[in-house]
Specification:
It is built from three helices and five strands. A hairpin with a 5-residue loop joins β3 and β4. It has a five-stranded mixed sheet, with helices on one face. The protein is α+β, with helices and mostly antiparallel strands. It has a single domain, classed as YaeB-like fold.
């Protein structure tokens, strides 16, 4: 199964305040990794596009019901970086049971 592009949503602050923020308490290590591979806080749209592309080209590896109110989707596979290399990542997305929008939660290397 693959997620549908028109249902995917990434909150801008997930990228700017978390994934590309080396000062974030919980996101600093991810920011350092992503910046090392060419992503930049000055160009957050590049990371957003790469995460969306990751969700579209890779299959959902696992679907998990979370607290009976939402489904979580784990997607694993390569993510292309601005320097032409790939990082193998797991991206986590969720959808509330009564909604169609699928929201990005986080990513981490696998």
């Amino acid at each position: 199964m693959r997620l549908e592009q028109d249902k995917l949503y990434i909150a801008p602050e997930k990228i700017t305040l978390f994934l590309l923020n080396t000062m974030s308490e919980s996101g600093a290590s991810k920011a350092k990794l992503l910046i090392h591979f060419g992503f930049s806080p000055d160009r957050p749209e590049e990371l957003e596009a790469a995460i969306l592309q990751h969700a579209l080209v890779n299959e959902v590896a696992k679907t998990v019901m979370f607290n009976d109110k939402e489904e979580r989707y784990l997607i694993e596979g390569p993510l292309m970086t601005p320097v032409g290399r790939t990082i193998n990542l797991r991206c986590v997305w969720y959808r509330k049971i009564n909604q169609e929008i699928i929201k990005f939660v986080t990513l981490y290397p696998v």
